Structures are given as C-alpha cells and as structure tokens.
Fold these 4 entries.
Entry 1:
Amino acid sequence: MGGPLPSGDAVPASGALPEGTTAHGDVDFGVYLHVPFCRVRCGYCDFNTYTATELRGARQDTYADTLLQEIALSHRVLSDIGALRAAQTVFFGGGTPTLLPAGDLARMLGGVRDTFGLAPGAEVTVEANPDTVTPAVMAELATAGVTRVSIGMQSSVPHVLAALDRTHNPENVATAVAAAREAGLDVSVDLIYGAPGESLTDWEASVRTAIELQPDHISAYALIIEDGTKLARQIRAGVVAAPDDDLQADMYEFVDEALGEAGFDWYEVSNFSRGEKHRSRHNLAYWRGTDWWGYGPGAHSHVDGTRWWNVKHPAAYAQRLAAGESPAFARETIDGSAAVLERVLLQSRIREGLAIDQIPPSRRTAVAGLIADELVEPGAALQGRIVLTRRGRLLADAVVRALTED
C-alpha cells in the first residue's frame, strides 16, 4: 500500500485547477490508468496496490465503472482551462492491470478515446504479470487499441524471484512474450537487480535470458529498499542483507554493456530500446515534464505546473466519485527552485540530456569538473547539453547535486 500521501494544498471538491492554469496546445497530454490490485504483495513493493484481503469493501468488478467517473470529471476540469488535447500516450500500470478482465481495460481505454481522443499513432501500454497473459487476452487488448505490453519478468532465477516474493512461473515469461507478439504488440520486459542473495552470475543469466526473448525494450531497475515494505523490515531485523552498492554498480555496467552488444540503446538511466521508435514515449513524457492525468487511487497528475494526487484506498476513491467529488487528496504548484531542481533531476537522466542554459547560472561552472570526473560527455557539453556517461549514470544523484546545490 506504500507510505503515507504527502501533504499539500487543498483541492476543491469540483477538482478545479488553480486560476491561471492553461492547457497549452504545444504540450503533449498523456494518460495514466492505475489498477491497484495484486494477487500477492511482493516484499520490495511500495506501490499503491491491494490484495483481496485489503480491499475493505472496494470491488474489482466495478472498478472500471468507477474510473470512468473520474474520466468524466477530468473532462469537466480540463474543458474549463482550454481546448482538450488528444492523448499521445496511455499507460495502464499497477498493481497488475491484467488481473482485470481484458474487457474492463478496453472499456477504460474507450473512455479515454471517447473523452479526449487518441492522437494518430498513440502509444498504449499495459503492464502484465506473466502468469496472467494468454493469447486471448493479448488479442482482445490489441483489438481494443493497445499497442504495447510491459511484462514483469524481474529475474529468470528461481531463488531471486523467491527473494522478491515474485510468484510467477519464470517459464511463463517466454509464453507471454510469444502471445504478445502473436497479437502484433510491441514487447518490453522489466528486470530488477540487487535482490538479497542475487550474485553477479545470477544477474548475467537473467539479462541473457531477457535478450534471448528478443523484446523491443528492456527496463533494468536497481532494487531500492522502501520504508514500510516487508523487505525493509527484514533488513532491519538482520534476516537478509541490504543491497551492496558496489555489486549493483557491477550489475548495471554488465547490463549496459550486454544490451549495447545486443542492439539496444540506453535512452534513460534504467531503460533500453531497439532504436528510437521502441522507446517508451509515456515514460519519456514524465522525464520531459509534459502534462498528464493519472486516474485511480493514489495516482498523480500534472498540468501546467500544478501537480496533484488522489486518495490512496480504492474504497475512499470510489466514495468520493460516487458523491460527485474529485478524488484528489492534495496538490502543489511547482515553481522557483523546486521547478529547477525537478527539471535537472529528470532531464539529466535521458539520452537527449539537459540544456546547459537550464542550469542555474551560478552552477554552470560545475560542468567542467563533471567532464574532468568523466561523469558528463564532453562532446555533448560543447554543444550545450548535459549527457551522462555510463559512470555518470551510476552517479546521477551526485551530478544533480553538483548542478543545483550552492
């Protein structure tokens, strides 16, 4: 269920955005659809998800109808600030979206299409647990307009999956990829490295297995220990060891090299694709700071410098919408130094990099030192952009501090 929601400014029951907020026609608009259901809770997971015993009256079978109510509310809110924009990207995340019937996901996507329209060539992604993927499900999603599936592989090594409390059969990953391919969908697989007891040899086996699946895209995320998770409690109790920073660095260097040799290009610190056309356009929109509306309990949204987040529990979310009220819990305006920090933090992570003129003038002298420390590509810097080297990607937080802190 994740940690507590951050505090912020109050949101009116109507959900109306602050005066002066504008829907800029030249800024892309994306949609995130959160499906907060899981069969079991993974020990490392800090996402806003719920198993059957945690729903406290919320219902999976009516969830799509509830979310469609928020889509209707968003139409009213966004109509008040300017012309509506067609969605360039749609992303079903979770949780496990494919725990819902494919027909429910199709209805949710239909609600987005009917309300805002989908831009020509829109990217529509569904996250999937390998055990919930069948040829019939993939075919129904493709017919509904889904273009891409992201499969939660995490590892191919059974004891690593067990350490992460992942219950899927690793053999089902290949079956899921084949089903998605048969339906004509682009395929991404997600990996996690640094699990308790995972060796470099284990990680190398998982990366090679992922490459053999021949997906279009691979995400490789370092395991992060989040407060409040089962894994955090186990580490505090000394039951398992905390991730080793040096080992995780070795794992990153291996995956970066192996994927490069296999024809994948990095385009964000943890994301690799076979050419630009297979990059996740939805995730790139986050890193570039464009506009999106996040639907569902705990989902975050951003429009024209205002960010807000919904109440967390599915029951509270449904109650707000049934009463005709916005499910937003609080919001904030991103400006000043906070906007600068966020821009540097996000844009420095992507391959196209950060324009040096976006760095505070007092910190631009730090660029020379970052080049000398082999954290920033010198050629890109000469052309006015900060692009991280492999070493820089390993030390991305240090680069951000150098570019923002006086």
Note: The chain has two domains: 29-288, 335-406.
Entry 2:
Amino acid sequence: MAAAHTPLEERRPPLGLRERKKLKTRTAIRRAMYRLIAEQGYEATTIEQIAAAAEVSPSTVFRYFPSKEDIVLADEYDEAIERALRTRPVDEPPLDSLRAILTAAVSRMLENEPQEMHLRTKLMAEVPALRARMTETMAETSQSLARPLADRAGRDPDDLEVRVFAASVMGALREALLYWAERDQQDDLVALVNRTLDTLKGGPGL
C-alpha cells in the first residue's frame, strides 16, 4: 500500500561500499560541472576543468559520462522510475501509474536539487546539442518503461502500441520541461506535467 502513495520510495538493500563510491564520484562530477557552467557558461566549460573541480582525472569523467551533454542530463532517477512502475497496482490504468511516478520524481528533484533542476532545464532549452541529446536519453528511458508496461499487459516490449505509449509519455514530459524553461520557470512544473498527461488522455481540446 505504501508504494501506491510514495512511488519513488524503494525497498532495496543499502548500497555497498563500491556502489556508494561510484555514486559519490558521479555526483561530484555533476556538481562540479553545474558550478562551472553557472560561473562561465556551458560552451566555455571543458572536461578538463570539470575533472579538476571534481578532483578526478579526465579519463574518470569519461568513464562515468560519455560526453559533456551526458553530465548535464544524467541523473539517478531512471532505474528508480522503472522499479516504481513495477510496484504500482496491476489493475491501475498505465497513464495513472506513470502520472504518479513522474510527478513524484519531478517533485523530488525540485525539492532535493532545485538549483540543478533549474539550470539543467534552462540549458536544455538553450543549447541545441543538449536538446538533441535530451531527445535521445528520453527515448532510452521510454524503452526501459516499455518493459514493465509490457509485462503488465502480457505484451512484448517491442510491440508497436507499447512503444508508442511509452514514447508518448516521455515526449509529453520533455515538452513540459521545455515549456517550463522557455517561460523562465515561473509555472508550477508538477502542474505542467499533469496538464501534458491530461492532453494524452483526452486530446488537446482544440
């Protein structure tokens, strides 16, 4: 029952020492990049500068993040979202399940990482390379969501309807984030996510 109300709370063993060290390194790299971008802008920030600020080598940065764009866009929520989807009631409409999980994820990011969330979405809207990579990463996330959705429906994750549904939800989330950023992040982002999902459910009402 608790999972239905707190969809991102995970019942999993604590991370081991190795996993904690990896997470600490990933977090240090991301935070170093965000600090540098805030000071000097995205284009002026180099991998070498990020490595120095995070006190790691450039090769370590590339081991954790294949590109500079990935440092900005990567977070620790994708796996949690997939796991949370598997905890939702099997008879719950899929859109309702994803609404609960995605709004919880957005709320948690705004609460725990507000400055990073604001800078990240601002960069998504302003930097063409980031916007392009954002589309790719959300396509990857939709594939991970297709697996539990397909399992619930007794379908194959590669079925067209499953793929279209998962991709539509992630596309809606992408547009909500960009809309929020393009309007100086003045709106309630959770409310915007709900609006976009309402559109998937009922059409644009034009």
Note: The chain has two domains: 17-69, 75-202.
Entry 3:
Amino acid sequence: MTRPLVALGASDPMVVLRGLEAALAGGPALLPVAEGAPALPSPAPAHVAQRVALVVETSGSTGTGKRVALSADALLAGAAAADAALGGAGRWVLALPTHYIAGINVLTRSITSGTTPVVVPPGHFDARALAEAVDRLDVGPEAPRRYTSLVPVQLARVLDDPVATAAATRFDAVLVGGQATPAPLRRRALDAGVRVVTTYGASETSGGCVYDGTPFGTVRTALVDGALELAGPMLAEGYLDDPERTARTFTERDGHRWYRTGDAATTGADGRLQVLGRLDDVIVSGGEKVPLGAVERLVRELPGQDAAVVTRRASGEWGEVPVVVTERALDLDTVRAHVGGALGRAARPADVLVVDALPVLASGKPDRRAVRTIADPDGAPTA
C-alpha cells in the first residue's frame, strides 16, 4: 500500500500547516521544501509507503543529502511526550522554517492542541518581530501555556534586545536546539528570567527528544563505545529510497529499534546526557586527536563568542589545526590559553578569522561547509 507524496513550498507556514493536518489524518504524505534551495540529486518519488506521513529533506551542515521518512505515529508520539515534559499543551510562536523538523514540530504541536501558531515573518530573524508575535499570542482554556522554539543564534539576538527579552520571559518555555547551546548563553537567558529548555534530537527522532539532558517519555538512550544511540516511538521509518543508509543508521537490539546518532556523548555526574559532538568531527593535529566540538564549546564560553564556529585547516607541519571563525573580535592568545588549559596544546586554535556575518543554513545553524571554505579555501571539500 502506498499514498501520494505532495511537495509544498515552505515559504507560507499556513500552507504547510494545512498539508500536515491532511497528512496526519491519512491524506497525502507531505514533503515541505525550501523554495530556491538547491535540490537533492535524485527527485523525490511520487508515492511513499502508507505508513509515511512526512518526508523531511536535509543536506545537513556537513553531510550529504537525505530524505527522512516519518510516520504519523512517530510525530504524534513525540508531540505528546514533549507536551507532557513541558507541563501541558500550549500555543506556539513559530520562528523557524517549516521545512526543518523543529519548525514542523511547532506545527504538529499546534495541531494536536487545536491551536494556530503565531508566525514570525520568515527570512532574517528579527528579535522585535518575536516580541510582536508574543503580543498576538492569546491563550485559551484548551492550551493556556505559551511556547516557542529557537536556535542559539536567535536566542542571542533576543537577549541583545531588552524589549524582546522582556517578551521572551512571558513564555512558559523557550526550546533551544539545533546545535549545542553555549553554557554562558543559557545562563544569560536564565538570569534574564527566560525559561530556556535545551533540546537534543534530529529529523530521525521527530525532532528534540532529550530535554535539558534528560530523555522524555519512553525515549531510551545508550552509549555504545562512546557513541550515542536513541530508541523510542518517535523514530523515523528510515531514509526514502536508501535501504543501505537506513540499515547503517537504524539497528535492532534488546527488543528495541535504535537510531545511531553519529554523536559522541557521555553521562555527567548528575546523570544527564552530555553530547560532545560529531564522531567524525575529529582532527589529528601533531599526532593527537582533537575533537572540534569540544574546542568550539570552550570558545563559546568566552564573552561575546556565543555563535563562534570552530573548523579545520590543513597544515603542512601539524596535519590539521583548529581555526575559529567569528563575527566578533577575539584575541588569539586568549583563546589559545583558554582552550589549551582544558584540552592540551594540540587543541589550541591556530588562527581567529573575523567575518562580517557567519554563513548559516535556513534553519539558523552554521553552514559548516561554507565556514570551512572561509578558513581553508584550498583544502575544503567542494561537494
């Protein structure tokens, strides 16, 4: 049994909302697409398996393109567990693109709560526009709470604006995910009275399923040789027309189906999950392994460096070296001392590059391929 797959441009969130409502009710499966974005190499099929309600295209910030197939059951299970973790259903402000899973989640949770999200105008994020959206966010007895979902760079812009910050304190929760949230940014938000909840997940898990380091609902976590795996009812069916990738990424064990995230993780002293970064985002510098994600977290602890990105550069002497790319001035000796004191000499950045604007994807995440090209134009991959 199959059903049609309908592609809809994601520039109008209300069109995507109606398409998602139909898909969750058993109508045609939905493929939201970013208008004007490069297409994946192979065209999407006209039909998908009956269980598939939503297909999310993602090129990722570093990897190759894929189409993640999700069932209505997975999406609704994730939404229900998230609402329970947050304290109940609510009305949402939508500030993320609806061709990404985080934006789609806002729509899904609006549908399940019987509400309509207030939309921040698409395009370049404006913190004042978020504040205006909060003013339009009337709540009712069916969903008396207020929520929004942001990426860290959006949260930083909100906190830079006193009016937007005051508006953000009116949310019962501000979900922040898509990438690691710098600890100083989180502290800054909490000190300002913004109830931040850091999230971890992927399109393959119907979005965030770990809140503040704790898996919600029936989500399970496992560390296999330091690599994070997740299990639960919110897992994707797999990758559309890519059985080999599906078999590599999803596995059966102990009576559960597991998603291999590709991230390194550990459990802190408080029992909370700590994601350390991509397993493949490690360089060898002078014969020593250096996890770039760990370097980036340390750099982002420095004042004004919430959005800094650490990438790699080829080095004839060391093999590869870390490089910081940032929008704000940063003294190289300061960052080298800060990173070296925690991770050792090999992890010290070799350079700091200050740019007018960091390249980002439509989701708000850093475009790491473009950042690497800035740092190493001769050595960065072109495809």
Note: The chain has two domains: 2-273, 281-375.
Entry 4:
Amino acid sequence: MAHTRVYRDGVLVEEDFPVEQVSDYLRDPATTVWLDFCEPTENDLASISEELGLHALAVEDAAEEHQRPKFDRYDTHSFLIAYSAHFDVDTGMVTKSELAAFVTKQALVTVRKDDGFDIEAVAQRWDSSADLAKSGVAFLLHGLLDYIVDGHFDSVQALDDQIEALEDLVFDERPDQRELQRRSFRLRKSLTALRRVVLPMREVVNTVLRRDQHLVDSVMMPYFQDVYDHVLRASEWTESLRDLVATVRETQLNLQGNRLNTIMKKVTSWAAIIAVPTAVTGFYGQNVPYPGFQTTSGFWVSTVAIVLLSVGLYASFKRRDWL
C-alpha cells in the first residue's frame, strides 16, 4: 500500500489519496506531493517513472538492493540512496533498512526496500515542524534526512556504551576470555556495518547543500546545516570507535600475555624450589659410602639443607615478585 500526501502553500490538504491522482495535484505549482512505496512492483515503478519523467538508471537503482549511499543529479530530478540503522543492545547487531528517493521540483517519492524503515516516524517529524512546510520539497527532504542521521547517531552512541562495557570486562580479575572474544568480534562486525552507511552520508548531505543543486532555500539552509553537523559528529565518532575497538583488543592480548608471564614465573619458581629437595635426597640416596652414610647425622644434614635452600629460594623469588 502506498502512502500519499499533498501540501498546498505549506498546508497539508489531503493524504492517503490514490496514486493515480498524483499527476492531477502536480498541475498546480503551489502543491508539493509525497508518495511512498514499500516493496513496489515493477509496474508501480514504471507508472510513477512515466508520470514524473524519472531517469531509467535511477529507477533501476531503486529496484535493486544493496546500493551504496549516494545522491545523483539528473536533468529533471535528483536520486537518493540512504540507509536507516538501529543497534540492538540485546543481540549486539546493527539492523539496516535501505531507502531510495526521487526528488523533483514538486514531489518526493520514497521507495522502501522493506518495512524495516519506519516511514511513520518521518511523517511525525513533518507534522511536528509543519510551520516549515512552505519550503516544499526541501522541507520533506530535511525531515527524511534528519530521521536517518538521528538514527545513525543513536546507533553510534549505543555502540559506544557497549564498547565501554567491554573495556570494563577486560579488566575483571577473572575475565571470561571466550565471552570477551565473542563480544569483541560481534561489536567489530556491527561497527563495520554501521561505518558503511554512516560515512557516505557526509558526501550525500554535502551534495544536497550545494547551491548549484537549488534544492535548499534560505529558510531550510540552517536546518540542513544542523543535519550536516550531526553527520560529521556521527562519522568522527564512528572512526574513533574503530580505533577504540582495536585498542580494546590489543589491551586484551597484552593482559593475557602479562597473566601468562606471571603464571610462568610462579610455575618456574615453584619448580626451582621443588628441585632442591629432589636434588638433595637424590644425592643422599646414592648407593655408595659418603660422609654421614647410614647415620642419623646424615639424615639431619640433608633435612636442614633442604629446608634452608628451599626457604632461601622462596624468599629470593618473593622479593623479586616471582611468587
């Protein structure tokens, strides 16, 4: 089912009207039309393409999935590809939803590849700032981009919180190494997926802001600048998180190496201490005559030697922090 809206002189006059009436409304230069498709058929795209004069390459990109975020300019319209993103704290995974949009002088046509993109939230943003609707398509495009970028920003923030929790887990007294590795890998995978949709948005919004595009008027320019600022902050934050995840992994490996060195020192120290009585008793266990052979004095000499040497080694290792 398609969603439709029409604004006349900045006022919402009708919504959810049949798609066939779009051309009738566009005859009035004072109107702005929004049309939304979710998983459209080829016939749906063909009909609106013929009606609005859309370029065949843009229509082809709108029908295909897994496109790169971009903003292309054609003779009669512009074409946008973007992704919404949501980070699930429970699973640690990023969910993406692809959106294509055709931007003409009087119309905004959005094409959702699945129902994961919450278009109702975009409509609520439009309703909450209805005083800007006089700017026409720029008003609609701003609400769409603002929703997408805010979703990116929220996802980056949630991912940052998860990485901080991972840092705390690294410095536990007895960390679960398997769980650490699993969470670290999952967060790195989510961060990579998020970077692929966040970083290209800098180019997208920057292209929209270019004056030769003639898309943004003086009223909407500050609002688009605010969106661009959020895009830059989300991009820079994403890059810093990438370095932070790598640092967490390196720290985890260093701590593992330090713990292993400590264990090896302790094991080696105890082995050295245990070697003393083994060596002494082995010497006195020789089946040949020697001073103290088969006498009580020989037993006490060997016992005292074992105790003194063992205590001496223990004190020496303890002083060097090997035990």
Note: The mean pLDDT is 86.
